[in-house]
Each structure stands twice: as C-alpha cells, then as structure tokens.
Amino acid sequence: MKHYVSSVLVALTASLPLAAPASAQGVDGVVQLDILDGGRTANGTYLGALRLTLKDGWKTYWRAPGDTGIPPEFDWKGSDNVGDVAITWPAPSVFVQNGLQSIGYTDQLVLPVEITPRNPAKPVRLRGDMDLGVCKDVCIPERLKFDHTLDAEAGRNPAIAAALAQRPFSAKEARVSSASCHLTPTSDGMQIEARVTMPSAGGNEIAIIEPGNPALWASQPETRRQGGALVATAEVINATGGPFALDRSEIRITVLGANHAVDIRGCSAG
C-alpha cells in the first residue's frame, strides 16, 4: 500500500554556469544536491528547487520528522535580494522501524522553493547553510553550504512541475467541512484532540499535528475514524518545560493516506 507521508535534506552551491544545475555532495557521497532553476513567474517571483538524490537505502526527513527523525533547518541569512522564501513540501512517506515511526523521503526529493525578491530589478542570490539528517543503519548530521544565483530566464522545469503536483491537497480540495481542536491541560503540557470531518484519504490514515510554535513538540497522534470524522489525539509539551499557550489558528494538521495527503491550516475550538 502506498503511503504519502515525510522532512528534508538540502543544500545549494554555485560557481557553475547557470545553464546547468549546481551540485553538492554530502558525507561519503550519501546524498547529492542539485539546484534546479524554474525561471521567473508571472507575478515576479523566482521559482527554483533543491533536488536531493540519496544513496540506496538512505532516507532524510520531512519538516515534522516523527519519533526518531531530524528536522531540516535552513539558514538564508547570507542571501542577496531575498524577501520571502516559500517552500512546497511534496507528500512524504511513513517509515516504521523497531516500533518507532518517522516521516521522510527516500531515493530522490525535489523541493520547490519560490523566492520573492526585495527588488524586482535585481538578481536573486541564495546563499547560506542547510542542517539536516540522513539515516540508514545510523544517522549522520549534515551541514551543507549553498550559493547560487537564480536564472530569471530559465524555462519551465518538468521536475519542479512534477514536485508541485505531489503536494498535499488543501482542505478545500480534500472537501474538509470542519476541523476543530479540543485542548485539555496535562501534567506535562497540553492534550490536543483534533477532529477533522472529511472523506477518507484512503487506507490507514495517519495524522501529524504541528503546534505552529518551534519551541513546542507534539507526540505522534493516535489516529482513528469515527464515521465521517478523523480523530487524532496527541500531547504537546514545551521543550523548556515551562507553561505555554496554543494558538489554534497556527496549528497545522496533515493527513497522510494511501490515495493522497491533506494539509489543514488552523482549527476551531472544540
């Protein structure tokens, strides 16, 4: 059964002609990163992608990596003329090993990136670092540097188009009619019960809850069906151990099913 579930591995480098993608390799050739150019869009943004090719048997992680994964972190601070960076995550896969669940990608990942320039008349240069993890029998932390000037004249890139088509459905596209979150204090933090009324995404659905605050961590939810609703229960804790508040509008729920994935932004009180 095919699952759509994941985090990521990336890096950028430059000093190659713009006609060809720039490349970088990780430790022991475990991963190769190619930068793809998609040109300038009709609204003036730049479209590019990080194409990650992993060695056989290795995997990397989605933005919410599960029980054992390492979430990727991007540092764009050295970039020039970058106003906003929007990443589109293709639907990932779920891995279960020794009873622990992680979410990520194997083989190859194309991660589309849309850049809004501060000054539309000037070129866009992406420069910085990417911290990530790659795992097989062991996990290796990587820090990969990137430096690449995007090609405004590049044409449509089929690999970027295919990756964009693999994104999770929006709530509207998946016919989500309601999403609520009931919050209950616990001894360590907060229990969240998310109830999403939607048609099945196929097979054994798995939900992932992201609190919306990087200082907070959510456990892997217990997911079940109650008629037309998908119910996911998880515990949220603060990494510092202190008290916290949850903003329901910032909570993100991703449902991974055999047929498709669904990305739900925010939930009402429940």
From TrEMBL:
| First and last residue of the signal peptide | 1-24
Record-linked Pfam families: DsbD_N (PF11412)
Q: Which residues form the Thiol:disulfide interchange protein DsbD N-terminal domain?
A: 48-147
Its organism's taxonomic lineage begins at:
Bacteria, Pseudomonadati, Pseudomonadota, Alphaproteobacteria, Rhodobacterales
The protein's name in its UniProt record: Thiol:disulfide interchange protein DsbD N-terminal domain-containing protein
Keyword annotations of the record: Signal
